[in-house]
Write a structure and sequence with these properties.
222 residues, alpha+beta, 9 helices, elongated
Length: 222
């Protein structure tokens, strides 16, 4: 391997680790971190072999295209996690193919990592939510359904799609997109601080009760 190829392999590993660290910090799924790193290193290795072997480049790219659209059936993954998979594939492919200059691959890899880091930031479009809601009422009127969902979800319904309206069992299954208020978003992001700010600052039994309520809100135990 040339010095450029070794440097690109090091860049690839550093970028894959950074990408996996961003994902794990925000979503806390260890199994997918292993998958991202494994896919990346595997793509890097195969691309390196294809780059040095007497194989047409179109065949190699076609192979990666087929592999990239295979749906992994071990567990369902979200569209966000699919984006991380494709990023791992792209980084490995970019760094695995032969290059005479290291600048262009380095810029492309940095661009992929930077775009995912920004696009998946928790504060970007943080008020937008998506839920599938199963109501214990059959509501055919869209206006009434919108008002009921807004009341239940505590936000402004921006779009909804009724997936099933069961008049026999009196249920409604609806896919809803909604926007929570700024106060509700801050409460979900920092529940401990909101509870502490709203609790009375008293001593003795009332302070202990307030402590217990705060612990319950953030999921802790006393």
């Amino acid at each position: 391997m040339t010095t450029t190829a070794l440097l690109l392999a090091a860049i690839d590993l550093a970028a894959a680790v950074a990408l996996s660290a961003i994902y794990f910090h925000r979503h806390r799924r260890r199994d997918l971190v292993v998958a991202f790193l494994g896919v990346n290193v595997g793509v890097l290795a195969v691309a390196s072999v294809l780059g040095t072997a007497e194989v047409a480049l179109g065949l190699g790219l076609g192979l990666f295209g087929v592999l990239s659209i295979i749906r992994l059936r071990s567990s369902e993954i979200t569209q966000r996690e699919v984006a991380y998979y494709f990023a791992a594939l792209a980084i490995g492919l970019i760094c695995g193919l032969p290059h005479t200059d290291v600048v262009v691959p380095l810029v492309l890899v940095a661009l992929i990592v930077a775009v995912l880091a920004v696009a998946d930031h928790p504060r970007l479009l943080s008020r937008a939510r998506h839920q599938s809601v199963h109501l214990d009422r059959a509501i055919a009127d869209e206006r009434e359904l919108r008002e009921e969902l807004a009341r239940l979800l505590g936000g402004e319904v921006t779009a909804l799609t009724v997936q099933r309206l069961d008049l026999v069992d009196d249920t409604t299954l609806v896919d809803v997109r909604y926007r929570v208020s700024a106060a509700a978003r801050e409460a979900s992001v920092q529940p401990g601080r909101v509870a502490e700010a709203s609790a009375p600052h008293t001593r003795g039994a009332s302070a202990a009760a307030s402590d217990t309520r705060v612990a319950d809100l953030i999921g802790g135990t006393r």
